[in-house]
Design a protein that fits this description.
The structure is a homotrimer. Chain A has one domain: Porin (Beta Barrel), CATH 2.40.160.10. Chain A is built from 3 helices and 16 strands. Chain A has a 16-stranded antiparallel beta barrel with strand order 1-2-3-4-5-6-7-8-9-10-11-12-13-14-15-16. In chain A, strand 6 and strand 7 form a beta hairpin. Chain A is globular and about 60 Å long. The two termini of chain A are about 25 Å apart. Chains A and C meet through strand 1, strand 2, strand 3, strand 4 and strand 5 of A and strand 1, strand 2, helix 1 and strand 16 of C.
Chain lengths: ~375, ~375, ~375
C-alpha cells in the first residue's frame, strides 16, 4: 500500500469459556464454570512502515466483581485484566525492524509463536514459567532474514517480567527504576541502568520443521531483597512442524537462579503430538476432530526441595468449521499428573504454577473473530 | 448465511448521563451529575451456527478516579466496571440451543427481557433484587419453540449470583469452588457440586401479550456461614404488552430465605403503564413523548423487621427521533416513596437496594449506537 | 446528513511509548521504558443533532499488574486507567449547544484545545495543575458564534475536579454530594448545591491568532476539611497561532486558595516556539522535522514556602508522514530545570506535579488511527 491513508484499525478478539473438574481431592468435587481468556484488540498500519498492536485481556474475567471480593475469601482467584500488548513497530528496514512498547520477551517457542486461541491444548505447557512472558522494552527483529527462513529477535527490557508467576518476576531482580523523581505526567523519568536482555534465533524450513534457540538474562538486585540474590539465566530450545494433518511440538528449558534465588534451578521438557483426522481425509467436513497428547516433566530444586512433576494430557479438539478453524472450537482435555504430592504441599504459587496436581477434566468452548 | 466467512463483529454501545436531586432530607440538597450506564460490546457470528456476545460496563463511571478514593470518604459510591456478559451460543438445533459463559440467570421479566437502554423508567424496579442478575454457567434455550410463540430457558450456574445486592449474592450459599488446587493458568479447576438452577417458561402472543413464569434455587452453605443458612428459592411471574402506543407491564416475585438467611422472606409487585402520544398520532414527529407511571410495593420480613416500601414513579420519555427511538432519548422521573422511614434506618444495603427513600427528581440523557 | 440512520461509531485511538532518563541524581541512572498514553474511543452521531463521545485511557499502562503491586514497592507509580471522557452533545441550536456528561472543564488553552496526541512537547506545561482537568457536569457552548470566530463555553460541574493533582482536586472543597441516601441503581440521588463553575471566551482569527480568556471557581467546604478552607479561583489567558511552519503558544495562569487552602497562591507562565522545517520547504517529504523550545516558570507560595520552578524544554519532533502527521511521530525532549532543589524537598505531589526537577532526556514514539 503506497497511499498515505492509514489502514485499519482491524478489531480482533476471542473468548474461551471453560468447565473443569478434579478427581481424588477427598473433598467436594464438581464442574466449575468460568472463562479462560477474553481478549479484544486493535491493530493496523498508522502510516506505511509504521504499525501498531494493542490487546486487552480479561482473563478469568467471568465475573464483574471478583469472586473473592464478593465472598470475602482470599483463596479463590479472581479475574486478571489489563493491557496485554501495546507496541509500535517500525519496519523501514525489513531486516532490522524496531519494536517499542509492551510485548513478549523473545524466549520460548510456545510462548512467543502460539497465540492463546490456537494452542493444541487448553493450557500452555509449564514451560512458560521458565520464560519472561511480557515486559516493556525495545526490540530489533526480522521475521524472515532476506527470505532465507532465518528469523531473530534481540531485545532490552525492564529488568523483570511484568506478568506474574514466572522465573523473571521477582523482588530479587534489580529495580528497573533509578534515583530521583520517578514520574512526570505519569511517565517514569529515570531507570536504574539494569535491564533484562532476551534474544531468539530460529530457522523455519517450510511447514515440516521450525527450530528456535532462545535465552534471557536479568540482573540481580544489589541493594534490597535476599542477600544471596543472583542474576537469572534462562535457556530454551524448541521445535515444531507437521505434515498432512500430523503435528508435533517439543521444548526444553532450563533456568538458573529461579526468581533471583541463588541455588534455585528448574528444568522442563515436553513432547506433544496431534493428528487432525479431517486433514488426513479420514473424516467428513462436519467432523473436523483432532486427537492430541502431551507428556511434560517439570523439575525444581532449591535446598531440601527436589521434585519432579509430570503431566500427561490427553485431548480432543473439534473445529466447527474446517475453513475457519479457530473461529469456533471445542477442546476436551484430561490431565493425569504424577509426583503431584510434593507440589500440593508447597501450594499453588510454586514454580510449576501452570501444572495440574490432580486428575482433571477440562472442557473449553472458543469463539473468535 | 451459508458462507464460511464470519459475520461481524458488530460493535454496539450506549451512554446514560444523569442528574438527580432529593427533597426533604433536612440537609444539603441540589442536583448531582453523573453517568448511570456506559456500555460497549461486540457481537457476531463466528461461523454459521456459533455466535458470541460480549458486553463491558462502566456503570456510575463518570470519573476516572472513583470519587471516594479522591476524597477519602468511603460512604460515597464509586464506579462499578467489569465484564457484564461474555457468552457463546451454539444454535445447531434451534429448539435446543446451548449457551455457555456469563449471562443473565433466567429469572424475572424486566431483568431478562429489557436492556438497560430500553427501560420505561430510569431505574429498574426493585423486583430485580429478588432475582439472580448474571452468573457463569450453561443454559439450554429456545426463543420460539417451533414457531408457537412458546419460549424457554433452563440453566445451571455457579452457586450464587456474581453481581451484588440481590437475593442470591451472599456468603450463606454454598461455595461454587471445590477442594484441592483452584487455578491453573487462571482457570478454576474444580467445583463444589453445588449449583444455582434457573428456568423460565413463556408465551408471546404477538405484541398484545407476553407472559412468563420463572424461578431459581441455590444450595445453602453447609460448612461455613450462618448455622441457619438455607437454600434460596425465588419465584416470578410477569406480563407485558401493548397496542397502538399504549404499553403495560406487571410482575410479582417472592423469595424465601433471602440471601440464605432462614426466615428472611421478601415479596415485590409492580404495575406500570405508558402512553406514547406520537404512536397514538396525537403529536407530530418532532414531539415523540410518552408519559408513564409505575406503582411498586416491596416487602421484607426478618425477625423484628417487617416493613413495606412503596415507590410511585411518574415519568415522561422524550425520543428525539421516532424512527430510532433508543439512539437518543431524554427521561424525566419523579419518585414519591411511602413507608421509607424504616428503610432509611437500615441503610442503603437493605434488600430494597434499588428503591428511593426520599422524594426524588431524576433526569437522564441517553445516546447509543 | 438528513437520514434517520445514525452515523458512526467511529473508533479512534493512539499509543505513546516512552523512554526517559535523568542526569545528576547521585544514584542509579539509565533509560526506563514505559507508555505515556494509550487511548481508545468511540464517537459518532446517534441521530441528527445528537452526538456522543467516549474515550477510555490506560495512561502509564505499560504493565498488566502495576509495577508497585508486583514488586510491593509503593513509591513506584503504576498505571492510571479509567473513563476519560463520556458525554452527549445536543446541537439543535448551533449557537447554544448543550453538552452533558464527563468532559474537560473549560479552563486553559493547552488543556482544552490540544489533545494528548498533538502536543508540541511530550509533556503538557505545568500550567495544567492550575486548571480543573475534567469533571461531570453540564455545559452550554458554541465553537463559532454565527461565523464570527468567537467561541464560548459556560459550564456547571461537580464541585471539584475528578482527576488528580490540580488546584481543584482537594478535600477542602465542598462535597458535591448532599444529604440522605446517595445511590439508587448506582446513580447518585442528591447533590450538595455546591458547584464548580467554569467558562471560556475566545476569538479565532484564522491560523494566525487564537486568544482565549477563561476561569473557574469552586466553593469551599463548610463543615469538614481545614478551618481556613476557601473558595478556589483560577484565571487563565492564552494565545497561539502560526504561519508557514512557524508556531507559537503562550499562557498565563493564576490561582488563589490552591486546593482550597487559604493563603496558598500559584502562578504559571510559558512561551513556546516551533519551526516546522518541512512546512517551510527546507526539508524533503521524508524529513518532516520540527525543532521546538519552551520556557516555563511556575511559582507557589504558602506560608514559609515561596519558590519558583523553571523548566526549559528543547525538543525535536519527527513526523513520519507529512500528510498524516499525528499517525506516526517521534519526539525527543531535553529538559533543564532551574530552582529544582526546593521542590525536590517537598516531593512529587507538590503543586508543580508536572515539572521536571532534574536534567532529563525523554523520547516518545507515537502511533494512532
Amino acid at each position: 500500500d503506497n497511499s498515505n491513508a492509514n489502514t485499519g484499525p482491524v478489531v480482533f478478539g476471542y473468548a474461551q469459556i471453560t468447565g473443569s473438574q478434579q478427581f481424588g481431592t477427598n473433598g467436594p468435587e464438581g464442574l466449575v464454570f468460568g472463562a479462560h481468556r477474553i481478549r479484544l484488540g486493535f491493530k493496523g498500519e498508522a502510516v506505511p512502515g509504521v504499525s501498531y498492536f494493542f490487546q486487552y485481556k480479561w482473563d478469568g474475567a467471568w465475573q464483574s466483581t471478583p469472586l473473592n471480593n464478593t465472598l470475602g475469601i482470599g483463596a479463590i482467584p479472581g479475574s486478571s485484566s489489563g493491557v496485554q500488548d501495546a507496541y509500535i513497530n517500525f519496519a523501514f528496514i525489513p531486516e532490522v525492524q524496531l519494536q517499542v512498547g509492551k510485548f513478549r520477551v523473545p524466549v520460548g517457542l510456545e510462548r512467543t509463536q502460539y497465540s492463546g486461541n490456537n494452542l493444541l491444548f487448553i493450557q500452555r505447557s509449564m514451560n512458560q514459567s521458565l520464560g519472561a512472558n511480557r515486559s516493556a522494552g525495545v526490540m530489533f527483529h526480522s521475521p524472515d532474514l532476506m527470505n532465507t527462513g532465518v528469523y531473530y529477535s534481540l531485545g532490552i527490557f525492564d529488568n523483570h517480567s511484568l506478568d506474574g508467576n514466572d522465573a523473571f518476576n521477582s523482588g530479587n531482580v534489580a529495580l528497573p527504576v533509578g534515583a530521583g523523581q520517578t514520574a512526570v505526567g505519569g511517565v517514569l523519568t529515570n531507570g536504574s541502568g539494569q535491564y533484562l536482555f532476551g534474544g531468539m534465533l530460529g530457522y523455519k524450513m517450510g511447514p515440516l520443521l521450525n527450530v528456535e534457540l532462545s535465552g534471557a538474562r536479568a540482573a540481580a538486585a544489589k541493594y534490597t531483597a535476599l542477600p544471596a540474590s543472583k542474576e537469572i539465566d534462562s535457556w530454551n530450545v524448541g521445535a515444531n512442524g507437521g505434515l498432512m494433518g500430523l503435528k508435533y511440538m517439543a521444548e526444553y528449558s532450563a533456568v538458573t537462579s529461579y526468581q533471583g534465588i541463588e541455588g534455585a534451578n528448574a528444568q522442563d521438557w515436553y513432547v506433544a503430538l496431534a493428528a487432525n483426522l479431517h486433514q488426513m481425509t479420514l473424516t467428513p467436513d462436519w467432523l473436523d476432530v483432532e486427537p492430541a497428547v502431551r507428556y511434560e516433566s517439570f523439575r525444581y530444586r532449591y535446598g531440601a526441595f527436589n521434585s519432579t512433576l509430570g503431566n500427561t494430557t490427553i485431548g480432543v479438539n473439534y473445529y466447527v468449521n474446517p475453513n475457519n478453524p479457530y473461529a469456533a472450537r471445542v477442546q476436551l482435555n484430561y490431565v493425569i499428573p504424577n509426583g503431584g504430592g510434593a507440589w500440593r504441599a508447597i501450594g499453588t504459587n510454586s514454580p510449576a504454577s501452570n501444572g495440574y496436581l490432580y486428575n482433571t477434566l477440562a472442557l473449553q468452548f472458543q469463539a473468535g473473530f
